[in-house]
Amino acid sequence: MPNQLRNLIIVFAIFVGLFLTARHFLVPKTFGDLGHYRADALQYNIDHEKKFVDTTLCSNCHTDISNSKYVGAHKLINCQTCHGAGNKHIENPTINKMEKSSEREFCAKCHAKNLARSSTVIKQVDITKHNIDSKCVNCHNPHSPEIKMAQVASNQNKKDEPAICIMCHDKIDKIKTKGMHKSVPCQSCHGEGLNHIKSPSKSNMFKPSKREFCGKCHGIGIAPKSKGIKQIDLKEHNIENKCIDCHIGHNPLEFK
Amino acid sequence: MEKENTKVSSRRDFFKKSGAIAGGLLLVSMLDPLKQIKALAGEKPKGKGAWYGIGVDLEKCIGCGSCAKACKTENNVPKEPFFFRSWVEQYSVTANGVVKVQSPNGGVDGFKQPVLDKEIEKSFFIPKSCNHCAKSPCEQVCPVGATFISPDGVVLVDETYCIGCGYCVQACPYACRYLHPVKHTADKCTLCYHRIKKGLAPACITVCPTGAKIYGDLNDKNSDLVKFIKEHNCTVLKPHLNTKPKFFYNALKEEAE
After folding, report:
1. For A32-52, how does the pLDDT look when each residue is reduced to its tens digit (9 = 90+)?
2. Is B192 left (phi over 0), alpha (psi -120 to 50) or beta?
3. A181 domain residue, yes or no
4. Across the interface, which of B158, B192, B206 has its CB nearest the CB of A37?
5. What ipTM did this prediction achieve?
6. Is residue A235 part of a domain?
7. CATH for B181
8. A residues 103-162 near B, CB within 8 Å?
9. Of the candidates A188, A206, A224, which is a domain's last residue?
């Protein structure tokens, strides 16, 4: 064999050897097992941590809400659509809070009028006109959005009971029950609100402000002297001001 | 019916050019809607097992952006308004045919109630993401084999192997990829591979309030997706590019194709 050829073969062998070693180290494990990629990359993708959990877990702890939800129009919506991913919350609910928004914009994301939305798929309201003075959740329970209105409508025979007002004004009731007026029905001060409960923004309730109004129950010589209701003399007790400049109507021994 | 015709003729053009399939097949494919879809999307090349695709009923989409939002959370997509794996666009067409497309923050915060615009004749939402093409250009251009099609038809990225050259971002005709600003690797929809392989729906589908979006196995005659495709007149985006996308839209308007 001529020298040149032998040298050439040696060089070639070294070259191939180097190539194979380099290839061994450069081409990652499992490359080519399934195609022109690392087969391990499949498992890598599968191992990604999940954030949105099974919603049946929510009902384990929030029994009341999931029950009410399943009768309302939002029954098909996943809790986490409105409250965000629940993976952290289910581990430690008091430290890891869920998202919660009672703003009008939140509901508007789905319910604001939009030409691109089919009205058979979703009922829409003009959010610049539909009861603009109030948050949606004051009239619609977010978990059963039509129920609050329907409950009110089907309970119209109870229009004289505070219960019907509390369906929408539960926050006021919470204040009232802490104070001396807890036994006084809403209607005694605001009047009965048959129209108001049907269409709250169109028909406002009476909102007492005059001294004489409180005097009906508390004025010496005006109110009947019974029931142990404390009385004051309208002509003496802080006559420069209205009663509600000092007393909070729903909790009268709290002062402004 | 008109739409059907334009679709067929554009496909026929393609067939003529490639000369691959005879006209007779076209006729057959028109009789069987599923075949038609398979011609659009490409059948699984070999073997059995799942071959995943996505479907959206645009008539049910209300453009709330829940899908776009949930996707960011589930997959740690950067919050900045220009990184998306899944997003929603609103198309508005004026009477004289001008098409406006908007996608404020990808739809994550929803769409504003539009000020009454008498010019707008029609308007619709389109949720978008990776089309998981059977012949994906992104896979073809990847110089190192970091982008690949899984055995069940999902286009994935091997993050540990990607060199961040960005060729795939350029190559994708659906603009569904971005370079991750921290990891410096290509990032895209994985059809929530980590969820579907455990039998859970992808995050975007989990949170959809109207059930507009579905996913399923195109090889399984009883899957929701195959039923959906059978029952509706579905189309794909940019069929003329022949990337064989597997993202099927019902009621897709011509302005968006």
Report:
1. 888 899 999 999 999 999 999
2. left
3. yes
4. B158
5. 0.81
6. yes
7. 3.30.70.20
8. 105, 108-110, 112-118, 121-122, 126-128
9. A206
Confidence band of B184 (pLDDT split at 50, 70, 90):
very high
Task: Identify from B73, B149, B183 which residue to disrupt to test chain A contact, counting A C-beta atoms within 10 A and taking the largest count.
Answer: B73
Does residue A230 sit within a domain?
Answer: yes
How many domains does chain B fold into? 1
**Smallest Cβ distance to A109: which of B64, B75, B114?**
B64
Pairing outcome for strands B247-250 and B52-57: parallel
Residue B257 lies in a domain: no
Domain residues for A194? 158-206
- Across the interface, which of B70, B147, B160 has its CB nearest the CB of A44? B160
d(CA A88, CA B249): 34
Task: Tell me what pLDDT residue B124 has.
Answer: 95
Among B91, B101, B148, pick the best mutation site for testing chain A contact (most A Cβ within 10 A).
Answer: B148
For chain A, what is the domain count?
Answer: 2
In a domain, A4, yes or no: no
In a domain, B146, yes or no: yes
Residues sharing a CB contact under 8 Å with residue B99, sequence separation 6 or more, in sequence order: B91, B92, B93, B255
Report the pLDDT value the prediction gives residue B42, as an integer from 0 to 100: 54
Spell out the residues 6+ positions from residue A83 whose beta carbon is closer than 8 angstroms to its own: A98, A99, A100
Considering only alpha carbons, which residue of chain B is nearest residue A51? B74
